[in-house]
Amino acid sequence: MQPFLDGVLSHDEVVEAQRHLDKCNWCAKRYHFEERLRHYVRVATIEPMSAELKQKLAALRTPL
Amino acid sequence: MSESAPSTAEARRLAEEARARVRFEEEALELSDQVYRVARRLAGSREEAEDLVQQTYERAFRSWRQFTPGTNMRAWLLRILTNLNIDRGRRQQRSPQTTSLDTEAGDYFLYNKLEAQSPDGAVDEDRVLERLSQDSIVDALAEVPHDFRDVIVLVDIGDFSYADAAQILDIPIGTVMSRLHRGRRILKRNLADTVVPT
What we know:
The structure holds 2 protein chains of 2 kinds.
Chain A: H1 2-6, H2 11-23, H3 25-44, H4 51-59
Helix pairs in contact in A: 2-3
Chain B: H1 4-30, H2 32-42, H3 46-62, H4 73-87, H5 101-104, H6 109-117, H7 125-131, H8 134-142, H9 146-157, H10 162-169, H11 173-195
């Protein structure tokens, strides 16, 4: 399931995994939970960069 | 006149190089939000992340000629950042020992635990995810030992491929996959501690 979630399976493997999920409720429930949890973690860990840092980085540019 | 010809060519070359440099710097700066986002989770604190990103850009702008145009600049920047992070001696810090706990926690540890707990065996995903505050997720991730966390941060948060993550961390791709797998288990075990009352 991890490689499937990571999108690294071949086309045939994806078809096979999808077919399995269609008929196996046990895996399907876990798959959807994993997918949502991963998305949730990704969103929750976003912390915007401070404006000060952004300015500091811009100031590193070579003067024209 | 014959003397000015080479210097004109030289001037043109310099002008072209200056333009390439400006393009490089602009492209790098456009990626800074994404670089910071990954850096913030690789580093232990906001201050550390900010220092790392700043040093990364200083180094990148100094050695911009080493970047091969057309290749993945975000991965190139993260490679610099990761090396700086290692230079800071983070690796020497004692990471919390992973106990055998994570080997007991399977891929579906969290889900199984939730399922076992609900009276009718149905897991209400919305309610579970609501219980996970942003802080609890950030803490759960921060508690994953760094070797595993680095890979999770690059792949799951930074959207890097296994191959890019392997290159950035200078480890084999198989190691990326095994650390990712184990790291995610550890993360879910940590989350289970928050979500599932014992």
